[in-house]
Amino acid sequence: MQINIAQWRIAQQQRFRTLHLWLAGVLVLSVMLSLTQGAMAIDLLDALSELEQRIITEIRAPRALMTVATGAGLAICGLVLQAICRNPLADPGLVGVASGAALFASLAILLSSSMVINATLTLFFIPAMAFVGAALALFLLLAIANYKGSINTLVLILSGVAINAGAATLLGLITFVADDNTLRLITFWQLGSYSGIDWSKALLAGTLVLIALCVFWRHANAIMLLQIGEQHARFQGVHVDKLKRVLLITVAFVTAICVCFTGIVGFVGLVVPHICRMLVGTQLRILLPIVTIVGGALVTLADVAARVIIVPAELPIGLLTSALGVPFFLWLILREKRRFSHA
Amino acid sequence: MLDCHNISYSIGKNTLLRYVSWQFAQGKITSIIGANGAGKSTLLKGLLGIVKPDVGRVDFQGVALSEWTLQELALRRAYMAQHGTQRLALPVVEYLLLARVHYTESQSSAEQHVQHVINELDLIAMMFKRLDELSGGEYQRVELARAWCQLLDHQQLDGKLLLLDEPGSALDINQSQKLYQYLRKFVAAGGSVIVVEHDLNVAAKYCDEMLLLKQGQCLAAGKTNEVFTQTNLNQCFNVNGQVVHDEKRGVMSFSL
């Protein structure tokens, strides 16, 4: 007996409900790990000393929120960029926003080492500069890729490559003039770290990622039509250029916020959407919540691992996500290569 | 339904369309016929509004095409591109439901409309298959279903227009015949069709009206049996062929 659409939809929902529960469990578990593990292991079941309470509420809880928020943010941005570019290898780093942020953060580190800036100012100076860099990279990107009000996807990717190259050159210049100590700071910033995250930063990132999630959810169907084809979307009533601009600006904001406080946590935007697509297919309204959870959980777990591998020091988290991401990236390229040669 | 008044279009010194005028009739299948480079696709693009004519204008339901909003047009007019779209790993049902997003309706209403189209086009066997698993002929039928879903309003197609660019180019005789049978169904349900067709005999068999283009000019237009004449076709294609009437089966064909 042939099932109808309504029955099929209910079966789908049941299937995904189980998956949602599992993934939510993983997220909760990773947050618990993030709260309890680290230089000082804390058992939540025991009575907590005042010091332990302060460690949890003032250090580890905002840090856990930040890892969940930035992981989710980078992952959903990757997902949306892959849809806009109709390219499975797209990621927030690709369009040059992350490297713009890295360039300006390095500049800030260089400046603060050569000038006497008071310590609290330095704390905000570097993230603020990173944000300016990301915003500049975005405007540059839109200015180059924009042609008579529309954005060509190929030109967009090429513009990203050009911006990345420009940023790398200027970064080389900064590296050349910097002294050893500054160089070390710059390198570490680029490798990514979640130390020194407080509630204000975590809440800011969390709010922005939540807004981005709402924007993407609202436009989910239009994004799918866009992924099928731009002309296709236009004939189905989608204002393609307006939509692309809204999505790109959202992606750039989220990337900028994620990168400016924590440095570059690479490959999350590439790896997570792919794993999730393998699990549930391409329907965006199904993918978005799953990508959010998996991205948040993955970065949180990576951060826990970074803290416990060489206690009491911390491994840069960017190293861990890259170590995970690079083999995955290679595997993707090999798979695509096989597909293209068959086509 | 769709009226073009004296439209001309050129790129540099190349004139692609010269003062083409024709009122495309409601409730009919009209074919656009011509040799390669005669301007068929350009005319279709002009009718769609992708190409803005240098002179003249196109009216859709009595209103200039440029005054319609994208959403309003999407509700009334659908387009099937020659090579289709990028095929996502998406079930056919989901793809068809996406064509309903510009309607403000409940989920169950959208599903009812999609189910109706699936039944009309005999797609039940493949409704849960993924787009990238379909054969060329199946995919073409799903594309037609998509356009149908996009236009179907309260189970009706009155005043809705479907434009197709060489739909038969990837199909064999059998599949192409089926496609046109479904297009006839579409028209019977109240819709209108404009199709760029390279197969003369298919056009002669299934289309009510015909527009012959030669070097960007409208050579002849009207009822298919009036336009499909030896003189017209020989002039249109620069050949020396014959129109054969098969009285018994009631079909015309053109051969060299």
From TrEMBL, chain A:
First-listed, main subcellular location of the protein, grouped into a coarse class: membrane
SUPFAM superfamilies: ABC transporter involved in vitamin B12 uptake, BtuC
InterPro entries per the UniProt record, alphabetical: ABC_BtuC-like (IPR037294), ABC_transptr_permease_BtuC (IPR000522)
This protein's UniProt keywords: Cell membrane, Membrane, Transmembrane, Transmembrane helix, Transport
Transmembrane segments: 21-42, 62-81, 93-117, 123-147, 154-178, 202-226, 246-272, 284-305, 317-334
Cross-referenced Gene3D superfamilies: ABC transporter involved in vitamin B12 uptake, BtuC
UniProt keyword Nuclease present: no
Key word Disulfide bond present: no
Leader sequence residues: none
Compartments where located: Cell membrane
Topology class, membrane: Multi-pass membrane protein
Family per similarity comment: Belongs to the binding-protein-dependent transport system permease family. FecCD subfamily.
Protein's UniProt name: Iron ABC transporter permease
Organism, scientific name: Alteromonas arenosi
Lineage: Bacteria, Pseudomonadati, Pseudomonadota, Gammaproteobacteria, Alteromonadales
UniProtKB/TrEMBL annotation, chain B:
Gene3D superfamilies named in the record: P-loop containing nucleotide triphosphate hydrolases (3.40.50.300)
Name of this protein: ATP-binding cassette domain-containing protein
Domain ABC transporter: 2-240
General function of this protein: Part of the ABC transporter complex HmuTUV involved in hemin import. Responsible for energy coupling to the transport system.
Domain of life the protein comes from: Bacteria
An example Gene Ontology molecular-function term: ATP binding
Keywords: ATP-binding, Nucleotide-binding, Translocase, Transport
Species per Swiss-Prot/TrEMBL record: Alteromonas arenosi
Signal peptide: none
Record-linked InterPro entries: AAA+_ATPase, ABC_transporter-like_ATP-bd, P-loop_NTPase
